[in-house]
Design goal:
Layout: H1 8-33, H2 35-45, H3 59-62, H4 74-84, H5 96-99, H6 106-137, H7 140-157
């Protein structure tokens, strides 16, 4: 072989091709001499294929399928637990008043109760102040009459 005009990469590629040819020839010789021996070696060295979800079409591969595991029945476990507990056990009676739901706005009413009391006191004070002003301005009878009209108006509006 003349390596004068060939680069080092091409030389390495040619050497590699030569080694591959030699390996292919050796493999051909092994196939001719010991086909049965090669299969036995391959089976002993190779892990066995297990088909769990795949159903192969080849009959020889169908022998290597794994049966689907069956899940334990929960029904039997439940029946066993129920039978072990006393079915005739006395049940505690529940107070229905404690279970009855409260009105949806009970917490809001509780939260603003103090504020409402303050507002009620201020309202009463303002009403008293208005009555005093009217008494100073004019006749007592006019003031009483005006308060009566206001109360009548407020009771009609409620």
């Amino acid at each position: 072989m003349a390596t004068e005009g060939i680069s080092s990469l091409e030389v390495a590629a040619l050497n590699r091709k030569g080694r591959l040819k030699a390996l292919a020839e050796q493999a051909g010789e092994n196939q001719d001499h010991g086909v049965k021996r090669g299969l036995q070696d391959a089976e002993s060295n190779q892990p066995r294929i297990k088909f769990r979800n795949y159903q192969p079409l080849d009959e020889t591969l169908q022998q290597q399928t794994v049966e689907k595991p069956s899940a334990p029945s929960a029904k039997e476990d439940i029946e066993e637990i129920l039978s072990s507990t006393n079915a005739n056990a006395t049940r505690e009676e529940v107070d229905l008043i404690n279970l009855a739901p409260r009105k949806p706005d009970w917490d809001l009413k509780r939260a603003i109760e103090d504020k409402m009391q303050k507002l009620e006191r201020r309202t009463q004070r303002c009403i008293v102040d208005i009555i005093r002003e009217r008494l100073r301005e004019g006749n007592l009878a006019d003031a009483v009459e005006a308060v009566a009209k206001d109360e009548a108006y407020e009771s009609d509006s409620d």
